[in-house]
Design brief:
Number of helices: 10
Distance between the termini: 56 Å
CATH class of the largest domain: Alpha Beta
Mean pLDDT: 92
CATH topology of the largest domain: NADH Oxidase
Strand content: 5-15%
Radius of gyration: 19 Å
Low-confidence stretches: none
Number of strands: 8
Largest sheet: 4 strands, antiparallel
CATH architecture of the largest domain: 3-Layer(aba) Sandwich
Shape: globular
Helix content: 25-40%
Number of domains: 2
Length: 296
């Protein structure tokens, strides 16, 4: 490992607090085949932005000319020791605290500043899932973890409750090796999904997913759908809750931003009105289009 690569790794993990930091080529080929298939078969539903993002994921030079490396970082957001959330107005764990987009972006800006302090001629472009970066594919390619049957990136000893950030840079680094792991014969997530969104081949029917239906889809869930959702009104953690890699001994996050006290909490108050939702939360962006309908 080069001295600069080691310094970036140490700054990302020891100073900024990320759980891991790995390096890989930003260029993807067969890793995007499933994505291309979704687009070709119009499986994206109301997520039209994923179609618009494809060219940038295929050629990250469109985001950063001369890009050489993708630096992938992850941050644990596990914010409760409870393996299974209960109640009839459940919010997915990732959304109960502050909006992760801003929190992770601030940390990535800190990583960029460190890189520039060491290599002033470097150029960078960074983002998470709101930008046209193939963050999950890059995480797999870099060796962060392996792809589970629930389509999540799973890191042994940490599980899958973590956010993925990517910093593209024009500085060339040696690539880390992918992580070799599988779910084996386990199929708990497939069996537990109440809408049948997961297939035996480890693929997801996005339009069947509860998270899609309660967040991304422009039309609100029907009463019949809500009975199938097992109390989830914003997102869904079922396929992660049943995963053996998310066992009770996986560590809780050490960032207060993910705590329910920093946002809306694990259960939505039925008396909550859209204008009362804290602006620095993921739910704020969806408050008028979906949230009120979910709370009826």
């Amino acid at each position: 490992m080069s001295r600069l690569k080691q310094a970036i790794f140490e700054h990302a993990t020891q100073v900024l607090g990320f759980e891991d930091c790995r390096f890989t080529s930003p260029f993807l080929t067969q890793e995007l085949d499933e994505y291309r298939d979704w687009v070709a078969q119009d499986k994206m539903g109301d997520m039209g932005y994923l179609v618009r993002h494809l060219p940038f994921k295929e050629d990250p030079n469109l985001l950063l000319p001369g890009v050489k490396t993708a630096i992938v970082v992850i941050k644990n957001y596990k914010n409760t020791p409870e393996s299974f959330l209960t109640g009839d107005r459940k919010v997915s764990r990732y959304a109960v605290g502050r909006d992760y987009h801003g929190v992770i972006m601030d940390a990535l800006i800190g990583l960029e500043a460190f890189i520039l302090s060491q290599e002033p001629r470097a150029q960078c472009y960074m983002g998470i899932d709101s930008r046209p970066i193939a963050e999950r594919s890059l995480a797999l390619k870099s060796g962060i973890g392996f792809r589970g049957k629930n389509t999540m990136v799973i890191k042994p000893k940490l599980g899958s409750y973590f956010f993925i950030g990517v910093l593209l840079t024009t500085v060339a680094f040696d690539s880390d090796l992918p992580f070799k792991g599988t779910c084996g014969t386990c199929r708990r997530c497939i069996e537990a999904c109440p809408t049948g969104a997961l297939s035996e081949e480890g693929q997801m029917d996005a339009q069947a997913c509860i998270a899609y239906r309660t967040i991304e889809r422009k039309t609100p869930p029907t009463p019949e759908e809500r009975t199938q959702f097992q109390g989830w009104v914003f997102g869904c953690d079922i396929c992660q809750e049943v995963c053996p890699f998310n066992h009770p001994n996986t560590p809780l996050s050490n960032w207060e931003a993910w705590l329910p006290s920093a946002g809306v909490g694990f259960q939505l108050d039925p008396a909550l009105i859209p204008d009362q939702i804290p602006k620095d939360t993921v739910l704020y962006r969806s408050r008028k289009r979906l949230l009120c309908n979910s709370l009826e």
